[in-house]
Amino acid sequence: MNLILQGNSAPRHLVEQVAALARPRAIVAIGEHAYRCEEVTYNDEVKAQIDLAAWASQLDYAFLEGRRALGDFGLLAMDMDSTLITIECIDEIADMQGLKPQVAEITEAAMRGKIEFRESLMRRVALLEGLDASALQRVYNERLQLSPGAEAMLAAVKAAGLKTLLVSGGFTFFTDRVKERLGLDHAHSNRLEVVDGKLTGRIVGDIVDGEEKMRTVQRVCDELGISPKQAIVMGDGANDLRMMGIAGLSVAFRAKPIVREQADVSLNFVGLDGILKLFTR
């Protein structure tokens, strides 16, 4: 078992202090601010100690059995809002209606698993009724930003031959544009109904909830002729747990506690390109 420790700043002495809890045979630098601690002791008690120490030191950690190459996988599936991008699009759309606090409260509850996603989405979208559809372009132009490390991660993933999937409980207006901008292979999300240039407060077609996200990952894997165990799946909210659960590697990115607890790997401090440190080159 190896332990990967990394951070935006990871002084060697701090890494050694945290790693000592797992008694590594050796500590090897694998990049700037990233280290592989080899042949560590691993059990629930050690993991709990590392979890506390790493968080206090603002280090991300991952226990990995053996070594794997990025090319061992065939698909990278990503949630969009608060994962590939920094914002929750629906919250920013609601801001154009002066309703961001109300919508953001529902979003937060849904992402923490306190409200069923389908119900929460219908409640939030209903609040957008009557908003001019031009607000969507404003959100895209003025507020949508990629998460740190997104482009570096995608460049490495594509170079390793993986296909990419953006699967979101958000909206096609944004996923279609992000897909084209980043050259992604697949995208699937919800479609907002627009009539006479205004949002109606309704979704067109079936809702992309946690179950549909999982089915989408399975469907794309089937199309690629691979098992879901050859997929890396990244997310941050409770509605991502189903698709993360069938993956070969699940990654929680700056995620809610319920997601961090269930993911194989949790990145809380470094950017999306932090996943690259998990693989041999």
From TrEMBL:
<keyword id="KW-0479">Metal-binding</keyword>
<protein>
    <recommendedName>
        <fullName>Phosphoserine phosphatase</fullName>
        <ecNumber>3.1.3.3</ecNumber>
    </recommendedName>
</protein>
<keyword id="KW-0718">Serine biosynthesis</keyword>
<dbReference type="GO" id="GO:0005737">
    <property type="term" value="C:cytoplasm"/>
</dbReference>
<dbReference type="InterPro" id="IPR036412">
    <property type="entry name" value="HAD-like_sf"/>
</dbReference>
<keyword id="KW-0378">Hydrolase</keyword>
<keyword id="KW-0028">Amino-acid biosynthesis</keyword>
<comment type="similarity">
    <text>Belongs to the HAD-like hydrolase superfamily. SerB family.</text>
</comment>
<feature type="active site" description="Proton donor">
    <location>
        <position position="81"/>
    </location>
</feature>
<feature type="active site" description="Nucleophile">
    <location>
        <position position="79"/>
    </location>
</feature>
<dbReference type="GO" id="GO:0000287">
    <property type="term" value="F:magnesium ion binding"/>
</dbReference>
<dbReference type="InterPro" id="IPR050582">
    <property type="entry name" value="HAD-like_SerB"/>
</dbReference>
<dbReference type="Pfam" id="PF12710">
    <property type="entry name" value="HAD"/>
</dbReference>
<dbReference type="GO" id="GO:0006564">
    <property type="term" value="P:L-serine biosynthetic process"/>
</dbReference>
<keyword id="KW-0460">Magnesium</keyword>
<dbReference type="InterPro" id="IPR004469">
    <property type="entry name" value="PSP"/>
</dbReference>
<dbReference type="InterPro" id="IPR023214">
    <property type="entry name" value="HAD_sf"/>
</dbReference>
<dbReference type="GO" id="GO:0036424">
    <property type="term" value="F:L-phosphoserine phosphatase activity"/>
</dbReference>
<comment type="pathway">
    <text>Amino-acid biosynthesis; L-serine biosynthesis; L-serine from 3-phospho-D-glycerate: step 3/3.</text>
</comment>
